[in-house]
Amino acid sequence: xxHHTISFTLNGTHEIRDVRSNLTLLRFLRExxxxxxxxxxxxxxxxxxxxxxxxxxxxxxxxxxxxEIDGGKVITVEGLxxxxxxxxxxxxxxxxxxxxxxxxxxxxxxxxxxxxxRNPHPDRDEIKDALRGNLCRCxxxxxxxxxxxxxxxxxx
Amino acid sequence: xxxxxxxxxxxxxxxxxxxxxxxxEKATGxxxxxxxxxxxxxLLYGRVVRSPHPHARILSLDVSKAAALPGVRAxxxxxxxxxxxGLYLRDRYIxxxxxxxxxxxxxVGVVAISETIAEQACRLVEVEYEVLDPVVDPVRALxxxxxxxxxxxxxxxxxxxxxxxxxxxxxxxxxxxxxxVASAWDECEVIVEREFRVPIIQHVPIEPHVAVAELDRSGxxxxxxxxxxxFAQRNLIAQALELSxxxxxxxxxxxxxxxxxxxxLSAEGTAVVMAMSVPGHPVKVRLTREEEFFCAFVRQxxxxxxxxxxxxxxEILAMKTEYYWDAGAYTEYGVNIARAAGYSSTGPYRxxxxxxxxxxxxxxxxxxxxxxxxxxxxxxWGIEQIMDIVAEELEMDKVEFRLKNVxxxxxxxxxxxxxxxxxxxECIEKAARAINWGVDEPPSSPYARRSKGIAVSWxxxxxxxxxxxxxxxxxxxxxxxxxxxxxxxxxxxxxxVMAQMVAGVLGIPVDWVQISTPVDTxxxxxxxxxxxxxxxxxxxxxxxxxxxxxxxxxxxxxxEHWNEDIEHLDLRDGQxxxxxxxxxxxxxxxxxxxxxxxxxxxWRGGPILGQGSFMPGYVTSLxxxxxxxxxxxxxxxxxxxxxxxxVDTRTGKVKIHRIASAFDVGKAINPEQVEAQMQGGxxxxxxxxxxxxxxxxxxxxxxxxxxxYRIATSVDIPDEIIPIIVEVPQxxxxxxxxxxxxxxxIPTAPAIANAVSAATGVRIFDLPISAExxxxxxxKERSG
Lengths: 156, 784
Known about the structure:
The structure holds two protein chains of two kinds.
Chain A lengths: L2 E8 L2 E8 L4 H8 L18 E4 L2 E4 L12 E3 L12 H8 L9 H14 L5 H8 L10 H13 L2
Parallel strand pairs in A: 1-5
Antiparallel strand pairs in A: 1-2, 3-4, 3-5
Chain B lengths: L2 H4 L16 H5 L16 E7 L5 E7 L1 H5 L3 E5 L22 E2 L5 E7 L2 H10 L1 E6 L38 E9 L2 H4 L5 E9 L11 E6 L5 E5 L4 H12 L6 E5 L14 H10 L6 E4 L2 H6 L3 E2 L1 E10 L5 E13 L5 H10 L9 E10 L5 E2 L6 H19 L3 H8 L18 H11 L13 E12 L9 E7 L5 E5 L8 H13 L6 E3 L3 E2 L14 H28 L6 E4 L2 E4 L5 E3 L8 E2 L6 E2 L4 E6 L22 E12 L5 E11 L6 H20 L5 E2 L2 E2 L18 E7 L21 H13 L10 H13 L1
Parallel strand pairs in B: 1-12, 10-11, 13-17, 15-16, 20-21, 30-33
Antiparallel strand pairs in B: 1-5, 2-4, 2-6, 3-5, 7-16, 8-14, 9-10, 9-12, 11-22, 14-15, 18-29, 19-20, 19-28, 23-24, 24-25, 26-27, 29-30, 31-32
Helix pairs in contact in B: 6-7, 10-16, 13-14, 15-16
């Protein structure tokens, strides 16, 4: 199996690693870098639990090869709260009870972060649309949407 | 100003919408789930070779090529573990021994140094099968001459309240005979008879099952698993391995969604048997999403045949029901679901003459397990539609018809139990009002038809009569409290609610309370299972008892110290106070180190440790022939949902404007968490109503992926969900609380069906209410 030396930043830290050609970003993050906030729910790009930001765009880490992030910038849920300061989205998810079992939460937060970065003032339908790739079986989505709405308002 | 007056009293946290105590961990990605635990380089990986046939006899097994693959450490089969196990009916092995009975039945386990090698080795296993005719319909399964799934049913060990019929595919038959149904039909003005069908669906927790098992050198097993019922799993593994409970330790971190699928034993058993063959190595089994759809539990399918009669005044006089549960290959919980369905078969209605036969039927389908509602969403699908039809035939308003017939406290229900006080009528009135019942509102387009529907429901915790809970409350030096429980946080917020209860009893802020995690059967006090919406009530009672025990010890110590009567003392704001002497002592001075006696005479007290247990003592059995008894269950939680929706006549697509969801929870310990359960339950209920079914072709699953098995996403939710909390206290609940976790998805599907029928004139009898079905039925109506 061919190996690649890749250079990237993960949550603000520069890294250089060797990876196999067939290693997915999801397995790389979880099994080699110990980034456990990235969850594995289906491994086929359907549930969104492994959503991370790659160069600012939300991607399913199970559908991206680790080799592809060479030269790129990856942000996971761990990277949202740097220096002990929660991202406004994390705070509003806590305040609005947008969390139940918490397994989909990291991916949802990343999708919401990507939305607010490209559209700081989304309406409710735009929020729903941004979260449609993140399956949640507990919350019924209502309080997640409330939380994203509240974070957007706070960003004003 | 005295000390006491200066103390600003914090309000009790019970009844307040305290924020979840696990939210920070979960929002930062730090909360550990089973797949996140680290085991070091000793870890091995297990994969399972599963049956490709719904029903077949294993003729021969050749694992030699798999075992010879480099990197493979062990291969296990049914020969490695030969005891049958099961929660109520011991009808299965961890790995099949003679026959396979569903597609996905575990046949061989392979342990290897990586998941990839384990998968490769699985493909090298050779199994020769004699394919048998499958049983794929729970009604035809009872035909004489139908293939038998369990030829040796007579030999299986069974709980005394389960009644299997050897020589047939019936795993349990539960009967109700009340009054005289046969003669009651003559008094009826309206009689309606219909058949309803509910498909097999899957729970779809976003976290798949993960189990890691290790056999240590002393012969003891440890299992780390995503588990709703660590103690029940310990028990089941002990049965299957013929070990003592103390030889097995189950450690369960946060559960990434359960809904019942992570109760009982599924993937965990295979991990334990594989670990048996590689002592000293933890073995990890992770179900793929495809496996999750049919190798873990599914919700049983149901065929319900129901007949209801009412007199001209609109009083329901008689109800006759037959339930055929599509239980799958083995039962685990299924036999008890059939029982619960039987003793709840009338819904929350006052009906003097009842006949019900609920059959739990083996089929060559995935194993039916418990799922949110435990049979109640399935039976209410029919109950609440047939009640609507009866009301229509009587030309009565559907809300009025229900208000006229639903149970009140003090009235006898279907099993002869006298109902405790319930607020069902209040739920109906409030839900109906919330959606402007009786008022026609315009649809959003000329192609749409808009209308409203309503459905009521009830559900009791379905469990053995003596399901128990226990808890300990340990005081720390800084007066914070560590609470140990064996119930599990599966997203429902139970840890937060327990913390609120302890804080309420001990007069301390909620953030002084920590819950011992993970749940660990070696250290956590016993809890039957995290199922049945029973924790707030049952574990809550144990936690309150433990906190009261600690409180009593603290007050006794302070009373001795101050030489005062204990009645004058209280705990408030983290202090012991005396209303009489106005003395105040911060808890941190005394809850671990005790207090000195006057004049250097020594010390009193010591580390405060409170303990509490709870077990309902009053549940009685039901007569085998009539299903009658004094008190079949601990309580029923009742409620109502009312839906306002429109149907696009061009496509059949349903758009839900609003759903009001009203439940009598006794007391909302945390109102916002109750509302969150209602919102989540409504969306799960609507998802099962509109989209979900596990499609099989002759027993073989066809849509085991999120692409082909659709669940509701953020864009599918109702425009508005209106949660309504009704509080008629439960006499033996903490602060009057009873459970509500499962209930909000029970009436959702029939309420939607009733509204669709009102809007379009088309009634769908078999779930799901897909756009396609509605459209085709509307076409038929037009052409007919």
